[in-house]
Amino acid sequence: MDACDVVIVGAGAGGSAAALELSKSDLKIVCLEQGTFTSNSDLPGNGVDWEIRSQKKFNINPNIRRANSDYPVNNGKSPISIANFNAVGGSTVLYSAHYPRFHPSDFQIQTLDGVGEDWPIVYEDLEPYYEEDRKNTPVAGFSGDTAYPQIKGLLPPVPLGSLGRKIAEGFNALGWHWWPSYSGIATAEFQGHRTCINLGPCNTGCPIGSKSSDDLFYWPKALSNGVSLKTECRVSRIEIDRTGKVSGVEYFDSVGNSQFLSAKLVVVAASGIGTPRLLLNSKSDRFPEGLGNDSGLVGRNLMLHPWGYVEGLFEENLQSHFGPQGCLIASHEFHDTPEDEPFKRGFTMQFQRGPFPLESATRQFLRKKLPFGQEHHKVFRQTFDHTAHLSIIVEDLPELHNRVVLDESLKDANGIPAPKIEYALSENSKKILSFGIEKGKELMKASGALTTFGFGPVRETGYHILGTAKMGNDPKNSVVNMWGQSHSIPNLFIVDSSVFVTSSSVNPTPTIHAIALRTAKYIRENFSTIMKV
Ligand SMILES: Cc1cc2nc3c(=O)[nH]c(=O)nc-3n(C[C@H](O)[C@H](O)[C@H](O)COP(=O)(O)OP(=O)(O)OC[C@H]3O[C@@H](n4cnc5c(N)ncnc54)[C@H](O)[C@@H]3O)c2cc1C
Ligand code: SF4
To answer: Does residue 471 carry a pLDDT above 70?
Structure first.
């Protein structure tokens, strides 16, 4: 039987940051990850046929990929389906690297608006760890943004290009906030990594290694500090001893054999869906409803950021597909609750590049705007690169009935019960979404669009999976405390997006990194005290 001090389950955003921070101690650390390292030569972006090659192995939908590293997700009845990637680096391998922090107001929406709950921590608690993250991974942007307290030391922002300049004119005409995206992209030399060359296909993995995926930026440092990373190892259960503390994990190794790894402390970082799944699968006599689930909240309060899409068609060629796919301009004009609207909280606007030729043609064809035959190329040339694309990201509020449960029959390749999503859009989220889509169209028109088009929620956008093991001060109303430590099991910690109390309307990865770094520092500085409890 193997033994270690700390076992981390999952090598994605939370697990990567925790591994690097914990590696600054003498503790023996092992990370078990069900996926593998992604080989650069496999990345679709290395070939001209990349749009076709990204449809299967690098699809964002685990039910389409169906790789050995994936587990199926029953989201058949949810209006939003789960998007993720299971590998070293987790979902950051495919993410867009749009890299905004949460705002100070995001941690206190109950106090400010009487909805959701306040976090047990505030922005200032995380600020040093946002800064620490910036030393570990590239963050580009522009200081002076009025939407945030001062953020310094950023790499140069991604280029706006013709598309960005056009949209900025619209924002200026309306007098709305806009700012170049905070982008997890090496826009200048960063620790020996190559500089972004604005190729575009970031969402299938960056072929030159400029995008801040954690396999490329966090893991090499954690490994050289001595962390042991075991890939193709899927944890099926966390075990407890007779005193009710965790004693280690059961897992299936790369050839399917069941193994046990004894550990003094367990850090779970399996994502907002993988973590509740593992805890619910780790039932015992002491925890009949799932490990650490005395509150009954494991899996509940699932928040998914309902997504709206707005498109504008322009006369001029905006070269819209050049540049980092998810990073261009963001607007926080409608982030907080507006006056005189029938909803609480709001949305952000995230401008994107693309679509690329195949996606552009498919979308226009499905909307009956692009014919086959003689007119095909002519019409294609009038739309391709002539469109601007906007995401409306809605702040979803926590609701008990939105949740991750175990499916009664669906199982993964190792026979472990798979997760099922029970999720319905709230009236509040629906109202924000339709308001946001209208505002997006208004912006497109102010920027000079000839026509606009918008809809939501977009189904394949469950990228941000939040809130399913939330932190809090009250053990009856939360799963972990402000340090990510289980209220009922002192040597069990959670460091991924499950611990979020509310969702903000911005992308979560910088906040996941910051929370994981903070929790891991707490563990390494208090390890012997935690062991005595
Ligand atoms: C297409 C796409 C675009 C995105 N764009 C952005 C963006 O622009 N900005 C942003 O901030 N966020 C973005 N995100 C979201 C971001 O990637 C995630 O929020 C973040 O990676 C979540 O971190 P995590 O640690 O919670 O989970 P993950 O990064 O998903 O990592 C979880 C890891 O745990 C492993 N695991 C799960 N269960 C087990 C088990 N039982 N045993 C062993 N290993 C296990 C998984 O294989 C996985 O590697 C995007 C996501 C996608 C899919
Ligand atoms: S745009 Fe930059 S970060 Fe994105 S794939 Fe190309 S080189 Fe990589």
So the answer is: yes
